[in-house]
């Protein structure tokens, strides 16, 4: 059995065992928090996709989006601008930039 098959089954099993209503507690690191978590409007899979976008951004640049801001300023920015996030640098592929943009768009 390939590793991909195991990961796919684990992912599918995880998705089928999730709740459909949004969760409301606030957890996370400010630079990776989705707008809906900061605004306490409930969160679900969209918030996880946001965090994936932030992680890919950090992998490409060495820093999370908005790392030049302190944590509280970043939280206020994300909550107020609802996804108006920085783009990947020009040296990154268009595919990577598009992926991150889609993850960080609300």
Automatic annotation (TrEMBL):
GO MF, any single term: protein serine/threonine kinase activity
Query: Which keywords appear in this protein's UniProt record, sorted alphabetically?
Result: ATP-binding, Kinase, Nucleotide-binding, Serine/threonine-protein kinase, Transferase
Matching InterPro entries, A to Z? Kinase-like_dom_sf, Prot_kinase_dom
Listed Gene3D superfamilies: Transferase(Phosphotransferase) domain 1
**What highest taxon heads this organism's lineage?**
Eukaryota
Residues covered by the Protein kinase domain: 1-106
- PANTHER family for this protein: MITOGEN-ACTIVATED PROTEIN KINASE KINASE KINASE 19-RELATED, SERINE/THREONINE PROTEIN KINASE
Q: What is this protein called?
A: Protein kinase domain-containing protein
Its lineage opens with: Eukaryota, Metazoa, Chordata, Craniata, Vertebrata
């Amino acid at each position: 059995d390939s590793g991909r098959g195991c990961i796919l089954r684990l992912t599918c099993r995880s998705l089928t065992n999730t709740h459909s209503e949004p969760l409301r507690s606030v957890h996370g690191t400010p630079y990776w928090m989705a707008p809906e978590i900061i605004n306490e409007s409930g969160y679900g899979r969209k918030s996880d996709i946001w965090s994936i976008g932030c992680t890919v951004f950090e992998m490409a640049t060495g820093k999370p989006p908005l790392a030049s801001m302190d944590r509280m300023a970043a939280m206020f920015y994300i909550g107020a601008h609802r996804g108006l996030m920085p783009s990947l640098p020009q040296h990154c592929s268009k595919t990577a930039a598009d992926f991150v943009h889609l993850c960080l768009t609300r």
